[in-house]
Design brief:
216 residues; alpha/beta; seven-stranded parallel beta sheet; 43% helix; globular
C-alpha cells in the first residue's frame, strides 16, 4: 500500500488555488519546500515502511537547481529512505529545457526514488514524457477511468496504454476509481494498483482509512 501527500491550503483549498495565490517567481520554490512538510508529516504519522507519493511540478526540477539534493536530504533527515518515495509529475505543464529535466529525473532514479507520471492521458505531454524518459510507473487519468465500463473508446485507449507500458516495463495504476464497476473492468483488463474514493477518501492533516470493496 502507498499513501499520497497532497498540497492543500489552510482551509483545504486545492493545489490550483494554493499556487494561484503565489507570485509566479515563488511557485517552484514553494512546491519544493512543501515536500519538506510532506516528509515531516510522514515521519510523524509513522509510515512503517509504506510507500509515500509526493507530487512535483516538472519545472521545479528545472528552475530549482538543487531540487534533487534537497529532496534526498529531506528524505533522510526525516527518517525515511529513498526507496519509500514516489515522485509524481503531471503532464499538464509545458517542460522547457527538457535535457535538464531528464538529467534530474535520472538522478532521482539513481538515488532509488521511484518516478511516476500522474494524470496520464489528461494533458498533452504524456507520450513525449514516455519517449524522452522511462518512468517507473504511470497513473491513468480519472478522465479516462470514469465510467470506463460503459465506454468502448475509453476501454480501447486504456488497453493500448496497458500494452505500451507492458512493452516498456512500466507499472500502471488507475486513479479516481469511484464505482465498483470501474474497478472490476480495470482489474479484468490487467491493472492491479488502484486509487480513488472507492477505497479511501483524502483527508486533511492525516491519513485516510482504507477499505477494499467486495465484489458482487
Amino acid at each position: 500500500m502507498a499513501l499520497e501527500a497532497l498540497i492543500r491550503g489552510k482551509d483545504g483549498d486545492t493545489p490550483t488555488t494554493y499556487f494561484g495565490s503565489l507570485k509566479p517567481e515563488d511557485v517552484y520554490s514553494a512546491d519544493l519546500q512543501s515536500k519538506k512538510t510532506a516528509f515531516a508529516m510522514a515521519s510523524a504519522l509513522g509510515l512503517n515502511g509504506k510507500m509515500l507519493s509526493v507530487n512535483l511540478l516538472p519545472m521545479t526540477l528545472v528552475n530549482e537547481p538543487d531540487a534533487v539534493s534537497f529532496l534526498i536530504d529531506e528524505i533522510t533527515a526525516h527518517g525515511l529512505v529513498p526507496e519509500q518515495i514516489i515522485v509524481e509529475f503531471t503532464e499538464s505543464e509545458v517542460i522547457s529545457r527538457f535535457d535538464t529535466f531528464s538529467q534530474a529525473v535520472k538522478s532521482l532514479k539513481a538515488a532509488g526514488i521511484c518516478v511516476a507520471i500522474d494524470h496520464f492521458g489528461a494533458g498533452f505531454a504524456g507520450l513525449q514524457l514516455l519517449s524522452r524518459f522511462q518512468p517507473d510507473r504511470i497513473k491513468i487519468s480519472r478522465e479516462l477511468i470514469t465510467d470506463v465500463h460503459k465506454s468502448g473508446p475509453r476501454q480501447a485507449i486504456i488497453q493500448a496504454i496497458i500494452k505500451c507500458c507492458a512493452s516498456l516495463e512500466i507499472m500502471i495504476s488507475a486513479v479516481g476509481v469511484e464505482k465498483p464497476e470501474e474497478w472490476m473492468w480495470l482489474e479484468s483488463a490487467g491493472i492491479e494498483i488502484f486509487q480513488g474514493n472507492l477505497f479511501a477518501q483524502a483527508c486533511l492533516n492525516g491519513t485516510p482509512s482504507v477499505a477494499w470493496p467486495e465484489k458482487k
